[in-house]
Design goal:
Elements: E1 20-26, E2 32-37, H1 53-60, E3 78-83, H2 93-99, E4 109-111, E5 123-127
Parallel strand pairs: 1-5
Antiparallel strand pairs: 1-2, 3-4, 3-5
Length: about 140
């Protein structure tokens, strides 16, 4: 994983036991990417909690901005879970505090680094058009 934030409560989320699908929708282009999550392959990447939407996005080759490295210390990985959100553990107080700093928060808002689906149902996740860090380092 990308690291641990010692100042937040550890998220206790059940891991999936069966495969399920996450559909990522890029709001800016409307592009849809379906990804079959295989529980035995979690974690997929190094950012966010293992099995989180950010981790799954890495496995799917989808870039979700995460300035803090996926440790719930910013809100740049804010996404909308528009379907299947009931299969994710509720946001804890630390995630809610970070969401208070995010743009355009709705009842479907989650930090992708903290939102861990349990696999009971398929999900649709919308990545907002403004969820891009426009300042990138050059090579």
């Amino acid at each position: 994983m990308g690291g641990v934030n010692p100042y937040i409560t550890k998220v206790d989320a059940p891991k999936p036991s069966e495969p399920f699908t996450v559909t990522f929708v890029t709001e800016e282009s409307g592009e849809r990417t379906e990804f079959l999550v295989m529980p035995s392959e979690i974690p997929y990447g190094r950012s966010g909690l293992g099995g989180s939407l950010m981790d799954i996005a890495e496995g799917a080759g989808i870039e979700i901005e995460h300035a803090c490295g996926g440790v719930c210390a910013c809100a740049t990985c804010h996404v909308y879970v528009t379907a299947g959100g009931d299969s994710c553990q509720p946001a804890n107080m630390d995630e809610e505090d970070m969401l208070d700093t995010a743009r355009a928060v709705t009842t479907e808002s989650r930090l992708s680094c903290q939102c861990v689906p349990d696999g009971r149902t398929n999900l649709t996740v919308v990545i907002p058009a403004w969820n891009k860090n426009l300042v990138k380092e050059g090579h």
